Structure formats: C-alpha cells, structure tokens
Structure prediction request, 321 residues.
Amino acid sequence: MKHRWPTSLHSQAEAVFHSVRSIGKSKMDTDVGIRSFGTWDLYKGNAHSFVNILELNGRTSILDTLSVRDDMAEYLEERLAHYVEKKRSRQTMETILSALGKFEYAINHYIEIHALDNPRLETEKLRIEFYARSRKLLRKSSKIFDNRAYPDPIRLIGAIYDGIFQLQASLQYEGGLRTEGVGAPSNRRLKNPLTNDGLRGIATDPVTASPVGVVASVEKGGKETEHYVSVATYRRLEEHISRHGKLESDYFGYVETINTAAKATGQYAPGRGSHGLKHNFAQERYLECIKHGMTHEQALQQTSLETSHFRLRETLTYTRG
Prediction:
C-alpha cells in the first residue's frame, strides 16, 4: 500500500505524533508513548513552535531528518539566547528540550513502522549540549508561583492550636496530601480516615536520599499514593493512630481553623484554605527535585506522583511562575 504523507508540515507533525499516542494506556503497555493528555498537549505545542521554523526555512518534509537536525540547532540557539536576555529560568528551555526529544522519537518511530528509507533523526548529543548550557546560563527556577501558596506555612501551622488539625496541616504541607487523604473529606457523606493501614514505615526519600516517613493515602479517583513526610511528623501520626485508631476530622472545622490561623499570621487570602498548603508542598518539592539534579520534566513528574495528579499539566497549575 502506498504511503500517504500530508503536504503541510504541521499536518506531518500531527501524523508522527499520532503514531506514539498512547492515551489511557498504562506504563505496562508502553513506556515510550505519550500516555496523558497534559503531556500530549505540552509536547505537541512545543513541536509545532519548532515546525514554524522549518516552514520559515523553506522545508517541505519533517522526514528530511538532516535538515530538521540543522534547523533544530538554529532554533535552540535562538531560544537559549532569548531566555538569557530575558533573565528567564531554565524550566521552559528544558520543557522544549524534552518535547523535541519526544518529537525525535515520534519521527523515528514513524519511519520505522512505515519501513521508510529516510535516515533516523539523531539529536540526542545536540539536546544534551543545550541541557548543559542552559544549566550554566539560566537560573534554576523562578520562585514566583501561584499566590495560593502561603508565604510562611511553618508559622501558619504553628498558629493552629488544635492537635488534630495541626497534624493534618503538617501532613498536607510536608507530604502533599489532599484533605481526604488526611481524614477530612469535603463530602460529609464520605468517610476516609487515615488508619494504621496508611503507615508504611521509615524509608529513604527517592529525591534527597534522607530518612522520611511514608504515608499512604487513598485520594482522588480512589488512587493510593505514597507521600513522604518528616520522621518527626510520621512519629506524631503513629502515636495519634495508636491512641485513637485513626486520624479524622470535620472538613469545614479544619478549613475554618486554617483560615483563622492564616488571619492571625497575616496570610489570609480568599481561596487559599487547606489547599494552599498543597501548593506550598508542590512548589518546594519541585525546587528540591531541581536542586538534586532532576530536569524540569523529571521534577514535574515526581511532584505529580506525590500530589496524586499523575499528569504534568495539573502540576503546572501549582508550580508555574
């Protein structure tokens, strides 16, 4: 059967990305395809921005891999210079590099499955070079995040005098749990106490390699997620569950207490509530991942897993500056 190939470069990009679309599939099914809508949109958007350069340079096919490689070098040089001039962080640059890496995979996969004679696109060395240069020339990360985070979450938690509420707030801030994960679901008909089943012991933090307490909670969508908290907070939780059998409270009482503490410490803003602590966690965890050598994409993915989101786009609402 004759291979059908679109004439538009942007349609060609859609065609090769479609060959690696794995929306809804598990990692067991495929560890290289694109499995989430958020990542799909993010990568395709960046790839189409690059395709604009191919058009300006008069290219007619993204399967002309030698020309694509040359144009990619030109594109990355221009992007890096722009971000240096604007004093930007390296988050966006690393997202572009990750997206172009997936674009390369999509092109090569398309060539393979259609048994085409085109040479493979080889840009790994080029992308590694720009990863290294961006780390030298650009700031690690912007610290200007969504204002739902509390300016001083430690002082806020210190102003909560109810022991149960303070423990729940500590778990949210340190481990990224939702309210239902700490036993305070917003739906009053739903009971989801944190019990002994959620205590998974002391382990090693996968990012920092320091000792942490592991707390497992069942949250949004019925998914179980493991969260990492300080050993001190974990011991407090252990003691509380040992005495009372569970950690549980009324959601509205919990949020009212947080709002009262926020007002007392000058940090109140409509809409922050308990979710502000989750924003604090996500922003600090993302920066911690970057500090320990992760790329922008890797840091987002790790933070996504620990906040029970599982999609990069959702986590961007917490960490985008």
